[in-house]
Amino acid sequence: MIIEPRMRGFICLTSHPKGCEKNVLNQIDYVKSKGKIAGAKKVLVIGASTGFGLASRITSAFGSDAATIGVFFEKAPAEGKTASPGYYNSLAFEAAAKNAGLYAKSINGDAFSNEVKAQTIDLIKADLGQIDLVIYSLASPVRQHPVTGVLHRSVLKPIGDTFTDKTVDFHTGIVSDVTITPCNDEDIANTVEVMGGEDWQMWMDALLDAGVLADGAMTVAYSYIGPKVTEPVYRKGTIGMAKDHLEATAFKITDDLAKIGGKAFVSVNKALVTQASSAIPVIPLYISLLYKIMKAKGTHEGCIEQIQRLFSARLYTNGSIPVDEKGRIRIDDWEMDEAVQKEVAELWKGATTENLPAIGDLNGYKSDFSSLFGFGFDGVDYAADANEMVEIPGLI
Ligand code: NAI
Ligand code: NA
Question: How many CB atoms lie within 10 A of CB 239?
Fold first, then answer.
């Protein structure tokens, strides 16, 4: 079957196995080109199949020769349907890891469930004994609570006031106003249930209780802050309340890990095109302006550059881990650079459908979005038959 992109709003219904493989191999090459990192040797990545989580798995394996267990929720290929990109990414990752003589196994299931936590612990006990690093990189619109059974849905809404500002439909390039009505109290609670820190805490409690965390084990979850223009829908909106909760949870987990000398951190990462971020209104316009400016300055990074720098220049240096006044690791420093932000704010005011192709990097946005699904890679023959019926060898 020849696989072509079929875009529907914020998602693409198809993904390309060879393109996803190329995406993974490019990231591996990048990490190898930067040299070794004296990092963890046994790593669990929760949300390991795409975005920052995949980059964390690749950086651990190919930067520090780590054995990795990846947990994710992806669709396997079915008759006439391609798999979700994270499935193909993981297939490619496992093949490359095995080629390099590295242990890699994956669990495809709901990370929020007790069952997947128990399965993961069994796998660690059977194969690795103990883990030194746990990366928590889930992004999900829903969570079924493992105790109450309630299905919580997160929302992306402002709190208090109706919000109106510009956004761009990145497929058409049309800049228009978007108005979002404020959330209710339930929306905040639900979003915190899904994207807050409770599940991270549950993972760390379960791992600690099972004795599968090594002395000095570390865990890192990812957060975002961003600029003034996205504050009402992001940091001061419902999702921001969840991120506040996640950040506060790091301190609780650090307290719990004290008995093994472990520590929990939140790393604030840069805005990037991922499946999670393209669904948030206003962010695509911000990202297209930001990319243009950061590319011109030579400071632009993708997920793999961000995570390689996080591991090599923050987590695993000879010194202590630098944090901000709220205890967070900042790898969004180049995004939040004052000059960069000033320029974005200026461009934002004048951005229109007509001038966006010139003042923003809409093409960069579109091409990054296509890349998420394995499309648009050099060296991939998209006219060739792609056999999409494949199984991940180390899949549990
Ligand atoms: P993503 O959508 O690329 O990755 C999400 C991962 O979670 C995938 O591996 C997916 O399979 C997994 N997942 C989702 N639901 C699951 C479930 N129920 N069970 C098991 N696995 C599940 O997202 P991205 O952008 O890499 O986000 C990861 C974290 O980074 C999030 O906390 C996000 O808020 C944060 N972040 C994202 C930024 C961005 O601009 N994309 C910026 C800064 C932080
Ligand atoms: Na991820």
Answer: 24
CA dihedral sign of residues 26, 94, 5, 7 = negative
At 237-283, the pLDDT tens digits run 999 999 999 999 999 999 999 999 999 999 999 999 988 888 888 99
pLDDT value at residue 301: 98
Kindly write down the DSSP assignment for every residue of 272-313, as one continuous string. ---TTGGGSTTHHHHHHHHHHHHHHHT----HHHHHHHHIII
Report whether 217 contacts 132 (CB < 8 A). Answer: yes
pTM: 0.97
Write the ipTM. Answer: 0.98
If you take atom 29 of ligand 1, which residue's CA is the nearest one? Answer: 137
**Segments of the chain assigned E as strands:** 7-8, 11-12, 42-46, 67-72, 104-108, 131-136, 142-144, 151-153, 163-169, 174-180, 213-223, 263-268, 329-330
Dist CA 329 CA 316 (whole Å): 12
Q: Which residues does ligand 1 sit against, CB inside 6 Å? A: 47-53, 71-74, 86, 110-112, 137-140, 222-224, 269, 271-272, 274-277
